[in-house]
Design a protein that fits this description.
Order of helices and strands of chain B: EEEEHEHEEHEEH
Distance between the termini of chain A: 48 Å
Structural class of chain A: alpha+beta
Order of helices and strands of chain A: EHEEEEHEEHEEEEHEEH
Radius of gyration of chain B: 18 Å
Largest interface: A-B, 42 and 45 residues
Structural class of chain B: alpha+beta
Number of strands of chain A: 13
CATH topology of chain B: Ribosomal Protein S5, domain 2
Oligomer: heterodimer
CATH class of chain B: Alpha Beta
CATH architecture of chain B: 2-Layer Sandwich
CATH superfamily of chain A: GHMP Kinase, N-terminal domain
CATH class of chain A: Alpha Beta
CATH superfamily of chain B: GHMP Kinase, N-terminal domain
């Protein structure tokens, strides 16, 4: 059952006052503008046993994503498509507020929202990942571990998944005598578009992007919007207990297109995709 | 999501005979669970959903209580017989997420500061599912909360819009959800003009996005009128009938 709760991080009154003072001067505690992201760093191929991997740092938030490819049965109703499964986990190492155990509702939401952005954009051409139609297909797992949580896990995790997939090489499987065999060769991952998510939060009347953990503890509402390479919207999730006006949503949507384009270019540059 | 067949025919009619701006038939009955402090039963197209509210009441376990306001708890659950293939009764990840977004959609409407150290429990049981069960569930839950006499700022009405055959349509049904292009559920407080839930899956151009959001809001306003009618019927039913006779 879903229950309202205290925020995991308690921000002291003085610190909250500082945040308000900064916001009234159109600044944030770390000196950023409302529309400015924290520095993005991407390191690739850090896990040699994975078919692709990335470590993404967005400010102090740090996420590792790894791609593993197997074969299996297709999903029901999607017989002629490979399967793509994105999962996310916030490790107990990530913050003093995380406990080991089954995922709580926030982690379930994180994993589902990140998965939705990648899936709905159809980033990977899954029709190219079929061995025996209706029977055997490639199953691409992208698993993410948050190893340091300082706000905006949605975007950091999403960028990690995208970076890991862009840099991945899939194994070539073949059917021999009715059995799946790994040929030992690799192939390019069939990428069709690069989805980029942008998360914004509303604190009072201002909307700011890429919130830190401290800012999230003071937020009224959150919105995550994913756009594809054509600048179309492919996924959205409003979160937290506050609300937005229609105007705020439309502005956030426009920002996600404009900023998304910048971030996409940055991800392409940092991953060296297409070179 | 790739579409395989036409879902809107040459006359502009959809698979269930509706036009692109038409809502499925919606019926709400208030006060259907005797033991609950507030309840509502909604039929939204082929959705049949029961919402019951218990509270404000003491919080168990006690450590969950908040000193300055009420705890809102929400459970969205699908009955095993509500779907085409039997649904495992254990809560799925989807239900966990919907329970969360549903709570977050209702919370802005409630004046929880009025009931410190207490809990309000909202149970939403999907008995038969069609597309858009989360919207129907929020709509029913909101009416049930009003029926329970909880202090509220506004009523939350919910409705989805989406893309079918590259057209933006109101209130998508099961078939359109599975085979169509995009689904955008929205919950909205009509008086405060605030969006309390919004999700999207599927691809929309910026123009379609804007159109879709506006259309969903329009749908929410239609749903809101039905919610008001349902509450009026329970509390002023006899008076309404008398007025009509006169």
């Amino acid at each position: 059952m879903s229950s309202s709760r205290r925020s995991a991080i308690i921000v002291e009154h003085l610190r909250k006052q500082q945040m308000w003072d900064a916001i009234s001067k159109s600044k944030r505690l770390d000196g950023r503008d409302f529309g400015e992201l924290r520095p993005l760093e991407i390191e690739l191929d850090i896990i040699k046993k994975a078919n692709g991997s990335a470590r993404v740092k967005l400010g102090d938030t740090e996420v590792i994503a790894g791609v593993k490819v197997e074969t299996g049965e297709p999903f029901e109703g999607l017989e002629n498509k490979g399967a793509l499964i994105v999962s996310a986990e916030v490790l107990p190492v990530a913050s003093p507020h995380v406990e080991p155990g089954p995922p709580d509702e926030e982690t379930v939401e994180l994993a589902r929202v990140v998965d939705r952005g990648i899936r709905e954009s159809e980033m990977i051409d899954l029709e190219k990942l079929v061995l025996v139609p209706g029977k055997v297909v490639y199953t691409v797992f992208v698993d993410c571990s948050v190893i340091n949580a300082d706000g905006n896990l949605f975007d950091a995790t999403s960028y990690a998944v995208v970076s890991a997939l862009l840099s991945s090489k899939l194994p070539v499987f073949e059917m021999q005598d009715g059995k799946v065999t790994d040929t030992g060769r690799t192939q390019e991952t069939p990428i069709t578009t690069i989805p980029v998510s942008l998360t914004a939060v509303r604190i009072g009347d201002v909307v700011l992007v890429d919130p830190t953990a401290e800012e999230e503890a003071c937020m009224d509402a959150r919105i995550t919007i994913t756009t594809n390479s054509k600048g179309e919207f492919c996924a959205l999730q409003k979160g937290h207990t506050g609300s937005f006006t229609i105007d705020q949503i439309k502005k956030a949507a426009e920002a996600s297109r404009v900023k998304g384009e910048e971030i996409r270019a940055k991800i392409v540059e940092l991953t060296g995709y297409g070179k | 999501m790739t579409q395989t067949r036409n879902l809107i025919d040459e006359n502009g009619k959809r698979t269930d005979g509706r036009t692109i701006d038409e809502l499925r038939p919606v019926k709400i009955k208030v006060g259907v669970v005797k033991n609950a402090d507030g309840s509502a039963f909604i039929e939204f197209g082929r959705n049949k959903i029961l919402a019951a509210v218990y509270g404000p009441r003491e919080v168990h376990p006690k450590h969950m209580a908040l000193p300055d306001r009420c705890v809102l708890r929400c459970r969205y659950h699908m009955s095993p017989f509500s779907t085409d293939t039997r649904k495992n009764p254990a809560p799925s990840r989807r239900e966990i997420e919907i329970s969360k977004v549903m709570r977050e959609a209702l919370e802005p409407a409630l004046i929880l500061e009025d009931y410190p150290r207490a809990a309000i429990d909202v149970f939403v049981e999907v008995l038969q599912s069609d597309g858009g069960s989360r919207c129907a569930g929020i709509t029913a839950a909101s009416v049930a909360l009003a029926d329970a006499g909880i202090n509220m700022r506004d009523i939350v009405a919910a409705c989805a819009a989406g893309k079918v055959d590259d057209k933006v349509v109101l209130d998508i049904n099961d078939t359109e959800d599975k085979e169509g292009g995009a689904d955008m559920p929205v919950a909205y407080m009509p008086h405060l003009d605030q969006v309390t839930l919004m999700q999207l899956d599927g691809v929309l151009t910026p123009e379609q996005f804007s159109e879709c959001l506006d259309k969903a809001i329009k749908g929410c306003r239609m749903v809101y009128e039905i919610q008001k009618q349902a509450l009026m019927q329970k509390y002023f039913g006899n008076e309404l009938e008398l007025k009509e006779e006169q």
